[in-house]
Design brief:
Blueprint (H helix, E strand, L loop, with lengths): L3 H9 L4 H7 L11 E10 L4 E10 L2 E10 L7 H17 L7 E4 L3 E5 L3 E2 H5 L4 H20 L10 E3 L5 E2 L21 H8 L6 H15 L24 E2 L1
Parallel strand pairs: 4-9
Antiparallel strand pairs: 1-2, 2-3, 3-5, 4-5, 6-7, 7-8
Helix pairs in contact: 1-2, 5-6, 5-7
């Protein structure tokens, strides 16, 4: 029978939950007291992914994490599918697209930070300057994905901490990455897709998004993204985690 404790020990290759959390750099210090709580039991969140969300409370600080189990209906071996997810994740991160801090991977399992808000929910959060920052982040994400050659078919998996855009799904919805033959005609397609999501209903916000997109696409390049929350180990979000 599956358990969170056993999964953490398996990913970290340790004999205790404390050692697993320490190995995965999820505890503030080795002797810290901690509690683990299930937030969401395993649930299908896409054609390739099941999601489990849990909370780690230690020294008065609560953090949420996402365990993702990849599934394949195309006959592709799960280990190969996981490697492809991680490859596409690295491409996104190197292009400046926000990705969650990664803590561990297994043959078909990924452990990373849980990003709490959908884009629509984040846009409705105060204060207003947070909204402006998020609109700019939407535009920047569209530009960076297009420059990297990705051609997403859906933006439903875009998430946020309230001020940024973070991609949490690197499967089929992200589309293919063709950086060596990025077609000029693709420019603007992601912007149109973002507008069709109906995240923005005010004309002024739509104008702001279009303006930010145009300015970011102009030479000499795209500004670096603002940094979001990082792992307690201070690793790059797409850095090399503990693996099986």
């Amino acid at each position: 029978m599956w358990s969170l404790d056993a999964e953490l020990m398996r990913l970290a290759r340790t004999d205790s939950v404390r050692d697993a959390l320490r190995t995965l750099a999820m505890l503030p210090n080795a002797d810290a007291r901690f509690d683990l709580h299930e937030v969401q039991d395993w649930d299908a969140v896409g054609s390739e992914t099941h999601l489990y969300v849990f909370e780690l409370v230690s020294e008065g600080v609560s953090r949420r994490y996402a365990l993702k189990a990849l599934t394949s209906f195309s006959g592709v071996p799960l280990a190969e599918l996981t490697e492809e997810w991680l490859r596409r994740r690295r491409i996104c991160s190197e292009a400046g697209v926000g990705v969650p801090p990664l803590y561990a991977t297994g043959s078909s399992t990924i452990l990373e930070e849980y990003v709490p808000y959908g884009i629509a929910e984040a846009l409705g959060m105060p204060p207003s300057n947070r909204r402006d920052r998020l609109i700019t982040a939407i535009a920047a994400t569209c530009v960076r994905l297009e420059v990297a050659g990705f051609d997403p078919v859906s933006l439903h998996d875009w998430r946020s901490h309230g001020y940024d855009v973070v991609l949490v799904d690197f499967g089929e919805d992200l589309g293919a990455s063709l950086p060596d033959r990025h077609p000029p005609a693709a420019r603007g397609r992601l912007l149109d897709l973002a507008l069709r999501m109906k995240w923005l209903t005010e004309p002024a916000d739509v104008t702001r998004l279009r303006s930010a997109y145009d300015s970011l696409f102009a030479p000499p390049g795209i500004p670096a993204p603002r940094e979001g929350r990082r792992s307690t180990a201070g690793r790059d979000p797409a850095g090399t985690p503990r693996t099986d």
